[in-house]
Amino acid sequence: MPERQPRAVGLLGGGVIGGGWAARFVLNGVDVRLYGHSPRTVERVQRILANARRAYQRLTLVPLPAEGSLTVVKSVADAVRGVDLVQESVPERLELKQPLLAAASKAAGPETLICSSTSGLRPSLLQAEVVNPERMLVAHPFNPVYLLPLVELCAGQHTAPEALARAAEIYRAVGMYPLLLRKEVDGFIANRLQEAVFREALWLVHDDLATVQEIDDAVRYSFGLRRPVMGPVQSYRVTVDETSARRAMERFAPELKLPWTKLTEVPEFTDAFLEKLAEQSEAQAGKLTIPELEQKRDDCLVAVLQGLRDQGYGAGETLARWEQGLRDSLPQLTNGSGPLRIPTRQVPSEWNDHVTGSEYPQLFGIATDNLLCYIGVDAKYRSNSGNYRTVETHVSHLRELYAGDRVEVLTQILGADDRRLHLFHLLTREGEKEPATTGEQVMVHVNAGSGRRGPVEGNVRERVLELARIHAELPRPGANICLR
Protein backbone atom coordinates (compact mmCIF):
# COMPACT_ATOMS: atom_id res chain seq x y z
CA MET A 1 0.00 0.00 0.00
CA PRO A 2 1.23 3.57 -0.71
CA GLU A 3 2.42 5.45 2.35
CA ARG A 4 0.03 7.98 3.81
CA GLN A 5 0.33 11.45 2.32
CA PRO A 6 -0.69 14.62 4.15
CA ARG A 7 -4.04 16.08 3.17
CA ALA A 8 -2.62 19.59 3.17
CA VAL A 9 0.60 21.36 4.14
CA GLY A 10 1.29 24.92 5.18
CA LEU A 11 4.45 26.52 3.79
CA LEU A 12 6.06 29.51 5.49
CA GLY A 13 8.35 31.18 3.00
CA GLY A 14 8.26 31.19 -0.79
CA GLY A 15 11.91 31.46 -1.80
CA VAL A 16 13.88 28.85 -3.71
CA ILE A 17 13.44 26.23 -0.98
CA GLY A 18 9.84 27.10 -0.13
CA GLY A 19 8.96 27.10 -3.82
CA GLY A 20 10.68 23.74 -4.24
CA TRP A 21 8.59 22.32 -1.39
CA ALA A 22 5.45 23.73 -3.02
CA ALA A 23 6.31 21.93 -6.26
CA ARG A 24 7.17 18.64 -4.50
CA PHE A 25 3.84 18.59 -2.65
CA VAL A 26 1.54 20.01 -5.35
CA LEU A 27 2.77 17.58 -8.02
CA ASN A 28 2.20 14.70 -5.60
CA GLY A 29 -1.44 15.70 -5.21
CA VAL A 30 -1.15 17.54 -1.87
CA ASP A 31 -2.94 20.85 -1.26
CA VAL A 32 -0.57 23.67 -0.29
CA ARG A 33 -1.20 26.91 1.59
CA LEU A 34 1.69 29.30 1.10
CA TYR A 35 2.57 32.33 3.20
CA GLY A 36 5.38 34.61 2.02
CA HIS A 37 6.25 38.27 2.57
CA SER A 38 7.90 39.04 -0.76
CA PRO A 39 5.71 40.59 -3.48
CA ARG A 40 7.54 38.29 -5.92
CA THR A 41 6.53 35.16 -4.02
CA VAL A 42 3.74 34.09 -6.38
CA GLU A 43 5.78 34.74 -9.52
CA ARG A 44 8.80 32.87 -8.13
CA VAL A 45 6.82 29.85 -6.94
CA GLN A 46 4.92 29.58 -10.23
CA ARG A 47 8.25 29.59 -12.10
CA ILE A 48 9.62 26.84 -9.86
CA LEU A 49 6.39 24.86 -10.26
CA ALA A 50 6.69 25.15 -14.05
CA ASN A 51 10.28 23.88 -13.89
CA ALA A 52 9.17 20.96 -11.73
CA ARG A 53 6.35 20.00 -14.14
CA ARG A 54 8.88 20.02 -16.97
CA ALA A 55 11.33 17.88 -14.98
CA TYR A 56 8.69 15.34 -13.88
CA GLN A 57 7.52 15.02 -17.49
CA ARG A 58 11.02 13.75 -18.25
CA LEU A 59 11.60 11.88 -15.00
CA THR A 60 8.78 9.33 -15.13
CA LEU A 61 6.17 7.94 -17.50
CA VAL A 62 3.98 6.84 -14.60
CA PRO A 63 0.91 9.11 -14.53
CA LEU A 64 1.04 11.60 -11.67
CA PRO A 65 -1.97 12.18 -9.43
CA ALA A 66 -4.21 15.18 -9.97
CA GLU A 67 -2.27 18.23 -8.81
CA GLY A 68 -2.95 19.61 -5.37
CA SER A 69 -4.13 23.19 -5.06
CA LEU A 70 -1.77 26.09 -4.38
CA THR A 71 -3.33 28.85 -2.29
CA VAL A 72 -1.38 31.97 -1.31
CA VAL A 73 -2.58 33.24 2.07
CA LYS A 74 -2.04 36.50 3.95
CA SER A 75 -1.20 35.27 7.44
CA VAL A 76 0.67 32.55 9.28
CA ALA A 77 -2.57 31.42 10.89
CA ASP A 78 -4.25 30.95 7.50
CA ALA A 79 -1.29 28.87 6.29
CA VAL A 80 -1.13 26.46 9.23
CA ARG A 81 -4.71 26.02 10.35
CA GLY A 82 -6.13 22.56 9.49
CA VAL A 83 -2.98 21.17 7.84
CA ASP A 84 -1.04 18.00 8.68
CA LEU A 85 2.42 19.50 8.21
CA VAL A 86 3.96 22.97 8.45
CA GLN A 87 7.23 23.51 6.58
CA GLU A 88 9.17 26.69 7.44
CA SER A 89 11.71 27.91 4.85
CA VAL A 90 12.53 31.55 5.65
CA PRO A 91 16.10 32.98 5.57
CA GLU A 92 18.71 31.40 7.84
CA ARG A 93 18.40 33.77 10.80
CA LEU A 94 17.38 32.64 14.26
CA GLU A 95 15.65 35.95 15.01
CA LEU A 96 13.35 35.34 12.03
CA LYS A 97 12.71 31.65 12.53
CA GLN A 98 12.04 31.52 16.28
CA PRO A 99 9.07 33.93 16.38
CA LEU A 100 7.65 32.57 13.12
CA LEU A 101 7.70 28.98 14.38
CA ALA A 102 6.22 30.11 17.69
CA ALA A 103 3.35 31.85 15.90
CA ALA A 104 2.76 28.80 13.72
CA SER A 105 2.67 26.49 16.74
CA LYS A 106 0.04 28.64 18.45
CA ALA A 107 -2.25 28.72 15.40
CA ALA A 108 -1.81 25.11 14.25
CA GLY A 109 -3.60 22.14 15.74
CA PRO A 110 -1.72 20.36 18.56
CA GLU A 111 -1.09 17.29 16.36
CA THR A 112 0.26 19.24 13.39
CA LEU A 113 3.91 18.50 12.62
CA ILE A 114 6.11 21.59 12.42
CA CYS A 115 9.34 21.25 10.45
CA SER A 116 12.09 23.71 9.60
CA SER A 117 14.12 23.63 6.39
CA THR A 118 17.08 25.24 8.18
CA SER A 119 20.46 24.40 6.69
CA GLY A 120 22.29 24.27 9.99
CA LEU A 121 20.48 25.67 13.05
CA ARG A 122 19.94 23.09 15.77
CA PRO A 123 16.27 22.22 16.33
CA SER A 124 16.54 22.75 20.11
CA LEU A 125 17.20 26.45 19.42
CA LEU A 126 14.18 26.60 17.14
CA GLN A 127 11.97 24.88 19.74
CA ALA A 128 12.63 27.57 22.37
CA GLU A 129 9.30 29.39 21.96
CA VAL A 130 7.24 26.67 20.26
CA VAL A 131 3.99 25.43 21.79
CA ASN A 132 4.01 21.61 21.99
CA PRO A 133 7.71 21.38 20.99
CA GLU A 134 7.50 17.59 20.89
CA ARG A 135 6.02 17.85 17.37
CA MET A 136 8.76 20.17 16.03
CA LEU A 137 11.93 19.01 14.18
CA VAL A 138 14.29 19.93 11.36
CA ALA A 139 13.59 18.58 7.86
CA HIS A 140 16.49 19.88 5.78
CA PRO A 141 16.13 19.39 1.98
CA PHE A 142 18.42 20.17 -0.95
CA ASN A 143 17.87 22.33 -4.01
CA PRO A 144 15.98 21.57 -6.20
CA VAL A 145 13.66 20.13 -3.57
CA TYR A 146 11.34 18.62 -6.19
CA LEU A 147 14.14 16.45 -7.64
CA LEU A 148 16.77 15.76 -4.97
CA PRO A 149 15.39 13.09 -2.65
CA LEU A 150 17.42 13.62 0.54
CA VAL A 151 15.74 15.25 3.54
CA GLU A 152 17.75 15.25 6.79
CA LEU A 153 15.51 14.77 9.84
CA CYS A 154 16.99 16.04 13.07
CA ALA A 155 15.22 15.94 16.44
CA GLY A 156 15.62 18.54 19.15
CA GLN A 157 15.70 17.98 22.89
CA HIS A 158 11.91 17.91 23.09
CA THR A 159 11.04 16.13 19.82
CA ALA A 160 8.95 13.00 20.31
CA PRO A 161 10.09 9.83 18.46
CA GLU A 162 6.63 9.45 16.93
CA ALA A 163 6.99 12.91 15.35
CA LEU A 164 10.14 11.75 13.54
CA ALA A 165 8.35 8.60 12.38
CA ARG A 166 5.35 10.57 11.08
CA ALA A 167 7.59 13.04 9.27
CA ALA A 168 9.59 10.24 7.64
CA GLU A 169 6.38 8.63 6.39
CA ILE A 170 5.15 11.90 4.87
CA TYR A 171 8.39 12.64 3.05
CA ARG A 172 8.69 9.07 1.74
CA ALA A 173 5.14 9.33 0.39
CA VAL A 174 6.17 12.23 -1.85
CA GLY A 175 9.26 10.46 -3.19
CA MET A 176 11.97 11.55 -0.75
CA TYR A 177 14.69 9.74 1.19
CA PRO A 178 14.49 10.67 4.90
CA LEU A 179 17.84 10.39 6.70
CA LEU A 180 17.41 10.36 10.48
CA LEU A 181 20.33 11.93 12.32
CA ARG A 182 21.62 10.10 15.39
CA LYS A 183 22.40 13.32 17.30
CA GLU A 184 21.67 17.00 17.11
CA VAL A 185 24.58 18.79 15.40
CA ASP A 186 25.13 22.16 13.72
CA GLY A 187 24.98 21.88 9.94
CA PHE A 188 23.73 18.27 10.08
CA ILE A 189 25.59 15.80 7.83
CA ALA A 190 25.38 16.71 4.16
CA ASN A 191 25.94 20.44 4.63
CA ARG A 192 29.02 19.90 6.77
CA LEU A 193 30.50 17.81 3.95
CA GLN A 194 29.31 20.15 1.20
CA GLU A 195 30.62 23.30 2.87
CA ALA A 196 34.03 21.75 3.59
CA VAL A 197 34.53 21.37 -0.16
CA PHE A 198 33.17 24.88 -0.79
CA ARG A 199 35.58 26.44 1.72
CA GLU A 200 38.53 24.76 0.03
CA ALA A 201 37.26 25.94 -3.36
CA LEU A 202 37.15 29.53 -2.07
CA TRP A 203 40.77 29.30 -0.92
CA LEU A 204 41.89 27.99 -4.30
CA VAL A 205 40.28 31.00 -6.00
CA HIS A 206 41.47 33.43 -3.32
CA ASP A 207 45.09 32.29 -3.64
CA ASP A 208 44.94 32.33 -7.47
CA LEU A 209 45.62 28.59 -7.59
CA ALA A 210 42.54 27.88 -9.73
CA THR A 211 39.58 29.63 -11.31
CA VAL A 212 35.91 28.96 -10.57
CA GLN A 213 35.63 27.12 -13.91
CA GLU A 214 38.69 24.94 -13.22
CA ILE A 215 37.46 24.00 -9.75
CA ASP A 216 33.99 23.03 -10.96
CA ASP A 217 35.49 21.07 -13.87
CA ALA A 218 37.85 19.25 -11.49
CA VAL A 219 34.83 18.04 -9.50
CA ARG A 220 32.31 17.27 -12.22
CA TYR A 221 34.79 15.37 -14.42
CA SER A 222 36.23 13.27 -11.56
CA PHE A 223 34.94 12.35 -8.11
CA GLY A 224 31.66 14.21 -8.73
CA LEU A 225 30.71 11.46 -11.18
CA ARG A 226 31.14 8.89 -8.42
CA ARG A 227 28.92 10.67 -5.91
CA PRO A 228 25.56 9.31 -7.14
CA VAL A 229 27.00 5.81 -6.59
CA MET A 230 29.54 6.09 -3.75
CA GLY A 231 30.03 8.51 -0.90
CA PRO A 232 33.46 9.82 0.11
CA VAL A 233 34.32 7.03 2.55
CA GLN A 234 33.42 4.12 0.28
CA SER A 235 35.15 5.84 -2.65
CA TYR A 236 38.43 5.85 -0.75
CA ARG A 237 37.90 2.30 0.48
CA VAL A 238 37.71 0.80 -3.02
CA THR A 239 40.89 2.56 -4.19
CA VAL A 240 43.02 0.35 -1.92
CA ASP A 241 43.58 -3.32 -2.71
CA GLU A 242 43.05 -4.55 0.83
CA THR A 243 40.59 -7.16 2.06
CA SER A 244 40.61 -5.52 5.49
CA ALA A 245 38.74 -2.20 5.70
CA ARG A 246 40.78 -1.27 8.76
CA ARG A 247 44.09 -1.76 6.93
CA ALA A 248 42.73 0.21 3.96
CA MET A 249 41.86 3.17 6.19
CA GLU A 250 45.23 2.98 7.96
CA ARG A 251 46.98 3.47 4.63
CA PHE A 252 45.33 6.90 4.25
CA ALA A 253 46.35 8.15 7.71
CA PRO A 254 49.78 9.59 6.71
CA GLU A 255 48.31 11.30 3.64
CA LEU A 256 45.58 13.01 5.65
CA LYS A 257 48.19 14.61 7.92
CA LEU A 258 49.72 16.50 5.00
CA PRO A 259 48.88 20.26 4.84
CA TRP A 260 46.76 19.98 1.70
CA THR A 261 43.61 21.77 2.85
CA LYS A 262 42.51 24.80 4.87
CA LEU A 263 39.87 22.82 6.77
CA THR A 264 37.40 25.28 8.38
CA GLU A 265 39.42 28.46 7.81
CA VAL A 266 37.67 30.76 5.30
CA PRO A 267 39.21 33.61 3.27
CA GLU A 268 37.98 37.12 4.04
CA PHE A 269 35.31 38.28 1.64
CA THR A 270 36.95 41.56 0.64
CA ASP A 271 35.61 43.64 -2.25
CA ALA A 272 38.49 42.44 -4.42
CA PHE A 273 37.82 38.77 -3.63
CA LEU A 274 34.07 39.13 -4.20
CA GLU A 275 34.74 40.83 -7.54
CA LYS A 276 37.05 37.98 -8.57
CA LEU A 277 34.40 35.38 -7.69
CA ALA A 278 31.70 37.30 -9.52
CA GLU A 279 33.71 37.81 -12.71
CA GLN A 280 34.73 34.16 -12.91
CA SER A 281 31.22 32.89 -12.14
CA GLU A 282 29.70 35.08 -14.85
CA ALA A 283 32.33 33.92 -17.34
CA GLN A 284 31.57 30.32 -16.44
CA ALA A 285 27.83 30.75 -17.09
CA GLY A 286 28.52 32.27 -20.51
CA LYS A 287 25.31 33.26 -22.29
CA LEU A 288 23.04 31.00 -20.23
CA THR A 289 20.52 32.80 -18.03
CA ILE A 290 19.64 31.57 -14.53
CA PRO A 291 16.36 29.96 -15.75
CA GLU A 292 18.32 28.20 -18.53
CA LEU A 293 20.91 26.98 -16.03
CA GLU A 294 18.11 25.67 -13.79
CA GLN A 295 16.60 23.69 -16.65
CA LYS A 296 19.97 22.31 -17.70
CA ARG A 297 20.60 21.28 -14.08
CA ASP A 298 17.20 19.57 -13.89
CA ASP A 299 17.67 17.72 -17.19
CA CYS A 300 21.04 16.38 -16.07
CA LEU A 301 19.67 15.36 -12.66
CA VAL A 302 16.78 13.54 -14.36
CA ALA A 303 19.25 11.61 -16.53
CA VAL A 304 21.35 10.63 -13.51
CA LEU A 305 18.31 9.59 -11.46
CA GLN A 306 16.93 7.51 -14.33
CA GLY A 307 20.30 5.81 -14.82
CA LEU A 308 20.46 4.97 -11.12
CA ARG A 309 16.88 3.71 -11.22
CA ASP A 310 17.74 1.36 -14.08
CA GLN A 311 20.62 0.02 -11.96
CA GLY A 312 18.45 -0.19 -8.83
CA TYR A 313 21.02 1.74 -6.84
CA GLY A 314 21.29 4.77 -4.55
CA ALA A 315 18.83 7.56 -5.22
CA GLY A 316 17.48 5.45 -8.10
CA GLU A 317 15.87 3.13 -5.55
CA THR A 318 14.03 6.10 -4.07
CA LEU A 319 12.79 7.09 -7.54
CA ALA A 320 11.64 3.52 -8.24
CA ARG A 321 9.81 3.33 -4.90
CA TRP A 322 8.05 6.65 -5.57
CA GLU A 323 7.01 5.47 -9.04
CA GLN A 324 5.65 2.22 -7.57
CA GLY A 325 3.64 4.26 -5.08
CA LEU A 326 2.21 6.26 -7.98
CA ARG A 327 1.28 3.04 -9.78
CA ASP A 328 -0.36 1.62 -6.68
CA SER A 329 -2.47 4.78 -6.43
CA LEU A 330 -3.59 4.82 -10.07
CA PRO A 331 -7.36 4.56 -10.56
CA GLN A 332 -8.13 1.21 -12.17
CA LEU A 333 -10.11 2.43 -15.15
CA THR A 334 -12.41 -0.37 -16.26
CA ASN A 335 -16.13 -0.93 -16.47
CA GLY A 336 -15.72 -4.40 -14.99
CA SER A 337 -15.82 -6.20 -18.33
CA GLY A 338 -13.60 -4.19 -20.65
CA PRO A 339 -9.83 -3.75 -21.01
CA LEU A 340 -7.91 -1.85 -18.37
CA ARG A 341 -7.01 1.71 -19.32
CA ILE A 342 -4.17 3.84 -17.94
CA PRO A 343 -4.84 7.58 -17.62
CA THR A 344 -3.94 9.73 -20.61
CA ARG A 345 -0.22 10.47 -20.73
CA GLN A 346 1.75 13.00 -22.78
CA VAL A 347 4.67 11.72 -24.82
CA PRO A 348 7.81 13.35 -23.32
CA SER A 349 9.23 16.20 -25.37
CA GLU A 350 12.79 14.86 -25.09
CA TRP A 351 11.77 11.94 -27.31
CA ASN A 352 12.40 14.44 -30.09
CA ASP A 353 10.47 14.28 -33.37
CA HIS A 354 8.73 10.92 -33.35
CA VAL A 355 8.56 8.01 -30.97
CA THR A 356 11.02 5.25 -31.83
CA GLY A 357 10.69 1.51 -31.38
CA SER A 358 12.75 1.48 -28.20
CA GLU A 359 10.38 3.92 -26.48
CA TYR A 360 7.04 2.15 -27.01
CA PRO A 361 7.87 -0.58 -24.46
CA GLN A 362 8.20 2.16 -21.83
CA LEU A 363 4.60 3.21 -22.46
CA PHE A 364 3.42 -0.40 -22.48
CA GLY A 365 5.38 -1.03 -19.31
CA ILE A 366 3.21 1.48 -17.45
CA ALA A 367 0.12 -0.37 -18.67
CA THR A 368 1.56 -3.70 -17.55
CA ASP A 369 2.34 -2.33 -14.10
CA ASN A 370 -1.21 -0.98 -13.95
CA LEU A 371 -2.63 -4.45 -14.63
CA LEU A 372 -0.33 -6.08 -12.07
CA CYS A 373 -1.48 -3.57 -9.45
CA TYR A 374 -5.09 -4.36 -10.38
CA ILE A 375 -4.65 -8.10 -9.74
CA GLY A 376 -2.89 -7.46 -6.44
CA VAL A 377 0.83 -7.69 -7.19
CA ASP A 378 1.85 -5.11 -4.60
CA ALA A 379 5.03 -4.64 -2.56
CA LYS A 380 3.95 -7.23 0.01
CA TYR A 381 3.19 -9.84 -2.67
CA ARG A 382 6.47 -9.18 -4.49
CA SER A 383 8.40 -9.58 -1.26
CA ASN A 384 6.63 -12.69 0.03
CA SER A 385 5.43 -14.54 -3.07
CA GLY A 386 6.90 -13.33 -6.34
CA ASN A 387 6.31 -11.28 -9.46
CA TYR A 388 5.78 -11.53 -13.22
CA ARG A 389 8.73 -11.25 -15.57
CA THR A 390 8.53 -10.48 -19.30
CA VAL A 391 10.02 -13.20 -21.52
CA GLU A 392 8.77 -12.13 -24.96
CA THR A 393 7.52 -8.87 -26.50
CA HIS A 394 6.18 -7.97 -29.93
CA VAL A 395 5.41 -4.38 -31.04
CA SER A 396 3.47 -3.45 -34.20
CA HIS A 397 3.92 0.12 -35.47
CA LEU A 398 0.77 1.29 -37.25
CA ARG A 399 0.93 5.10 -37.12
CA GLU A 400 3.51 7.69 -36.11
CA LEU A 401 3.47 9.26 -32.66
CA TYR A 402 5.22 12.53 -31.90
CA ALA A 403 6.61 14.28 -28.86
CA GLY A 404 3.80 16.11 -27.07
CA ASP A 405 1.03 13.75 -28.24
CA ARG A 406 -1.40 12.65 -25.54
CA VAL A 407 -1.96 8.90 -25.57
CA GLU A 408 -3.76 6.19 -23.65
CA VAL A 409 -3.23 2.43 -23.48
CA LEU A 410 -5.88 -0.29 -23.24
CA THR A 411 -4.71 -3.65 -21.87
CA GLN A 412 -6.45 -6.99 -22.42
CA ILE A 413 -5.51 -10.44 -21.14
CA LEU A 414 -5.38 -12.88 -24.04
CA GLY A 415 -4.53 -15.87 -21.89
CA ALA A 416 -3.45 -16.86 -18.40
CA ASP A 417 -2.72 -19.92 -16.32
CA ASP A 418 -0.88 -20.62 -13.08
CA ARG A 419 2.51 -19.62 -14.49
CA ARG A 420 2.02 -17.51 -17.61
CA LEU A 421 0.29 -14.30 -18.61
CA HIS A 422 -0.33 -13.16 -22.20
CA LEU A 423 -1.19 -9.46 -22.59
CA PHE A 424 -2.24 -7.30 -25.51
CA HIS A 425 -1.81 -3.49 -25.40
CA LEU A 426 -3.51 -1.06 -27.75
CA LEU A 427 -2.11 2.49 -27.79
CA THR A 428 -4.12 5.33 -29.30
CA ARG A 429 -3.67 9.07 -29.62
CA GLU A 430 -6.21 11.08 -27.63
CA GLY A 431 -9.34 11.78 -29.68
CA GLU A 432 -8.62 9.10 -32.29
CA LYS A 433 -10.19 5.66 -32.65
CA GLU A 434 -7.59 3.95 -34.81
CA PRO A 435 -4.63 2.53 -32.86
CA ALA A 436 -1.16 3.96 -33.33
CA THR A 437 0.68 0.95 -31.94
CA THR A 438 -0.08 -2.45 -30.49
CA GLY A 439 2.08 -4.55 -28.24
CA GLU A 440 2.03 -8.08 -26.90
CA GLN A 441 3.80 -9.56 -23.92
CA VAL A 442 4.28 -13.03 -22.55
CA MET A 443 5.16 -12.97 -18.87
CA VAL A 444 6.03 -15.77 -16.49
CA HIS A 445 5.55 -15.84 -12.74
CA VAL A 446 8.74 -16.18 -10.69
CA ASN A 447 9.01 -16.99 -7.01
CA ALA A 448 10.39 -14.51 -4.50
CA GLY A 449 13.89 -15.35 -3.32
CA SER A 450 14.79 -18.04 -5.85
CA GLY A 451 13.75 -16.05 -8.93
CA ARG A 452 12.70 -19.31 -10.58
CA ARG A 453 9.45 -19.93 -12.38
CA GLY A 454 6.66 -20.93 -10.06
CA PRO A 455 2.88 -20.77 -9.74
CA VAL A 456 1.05 -17.55 -8.93
CA GLU A 457 -0.42 -17.65 -5.45
CA GLY A 458 -3.44 -16.72 -3.34
CA ASN A 459 -5.74 -13.83 -4.20
CA VAL A 460 -3.51 -12.77 -7.09
CA ARG A 461 -4.14 -16.12 -8.78
CA GLU A 462 -7.89 -15.77 -8.27
CA ARG A 463 -7.98 -12.21 -9.61
CA VAL A 464 -5.82 -12.83 -12.69
CA LEU A 465 -7.78 -15.95 -13.70
CA GLU A 466 -11.10 -14.15 -13.15
CA LEU A 467 -9.96 -11.14 -15.21
CA ALA A 468 -8.73 -13.51 -17.94
CA ARG A 469 -12.16 -15.19 -17.97
CA ILE A 470 -13.88 -11.80 -18.38
CA HIS A 471 -11.47 -10.65 -21.09
CA ALA A 472 -11.94 -13.94 -22.97
CA GLU A 473 -15.46 -12.74 -23.80
CA LEU A 474 -14.09 -9.62 -25.54
CA PRO A 475 -13.30 -9.56 -29.27
CA ARG A 476 -9.84 -11.06 -29.69
CA PRO A 477 -7.34 -8.69 -31.34
CA GLY A 478 -4.73 -9.94 -33.79
CA ALA A 479 -2.06 -11.86 -31.90
CA ASN A 480 1.50 -12.63 -32.96
CA ILE A 481 2.61 -14.65 -29.93
CA CYS A 482 1.29 -18.01 -28.85
CA LEU A 483 0.94 -18.71 -25.15
CA ARG A 484 2.87 -21.93 -24.66
Distance between the termini: 33 Å
The neighbouring-strand order within the major sheet is: 3-2-1-4-5-6-7-8
- The computed structural class is alpha/beta
Strand content: 15-25%
Shape: globular
Number of helices: 17
Describe this structure in words.
- Helix 2 packs parallel to helix 13 (290-311) and helix 13 crosses helix 14 (315-329).
- The protein is of the alpha/beta class and 484 residues long.
- The longest helix has 22 residues, at 290-311.
- The mean pLDDT is 88.
- It has an eight-stranded mixed sheet, with helices on both faces. Strands 9, 10, 11, 12, 13 and 14 form a six-stranded antiparallel sheet that branches.
- It has 17 helices and 14 strands.
- It has helices spanning 16-26, 41-59, 76-80, 94-107, 123-126, 161-173, 190-206, 212-220, 223-226, 232-237, 245-256, 271-285, 290-311, 315-329, 360-375, 379-384, 458-471, and strands at 8-12, 31-35, 70-72, 85-88, 113-116, 136-140, 150-155, 177-180, 340-341, 345-346, 386-397, 406-416, 420-429, 437-447.
Keywords:
17 helices; 14 strands; 6-stranded antiparallel sheet; 484 residues; 8-stranded mixed sheet; alpha/beta
Quick structural gist:
With 484 residues, the chain is an alpha/beta fold.
Secondary structure topology:
Layout: E1 8-12, H1 16-26, E2 31-35, H2 41-59, E3 70-72, H3 76-80, E4 85-88, H4 94-107, E5 113-116, H5 123-126, E6 136-140, E7 150-155, H6 161-173, E8 177-180, H7 190-206, H8 212-220, H9 223-226, H10 232-237, H11 245-256, H12 271-285, H13 290-311, H14 315-329, E9 340-341, E10 345-346, H15 360-375, H16 379-384, E11 386-397, E12 406-416, E13 420-429, E14 437-447, H17 458-471
Parallel strand pairs: 1-2, 1-4, 2-3, 4-5, 5-6, 7-8
Antiparallel strand pairs: 6-7, 9-12, 10-12, 11-14, 12-13, 13-14
Helix pairs in contact: 1-2, 2-13, 13-14
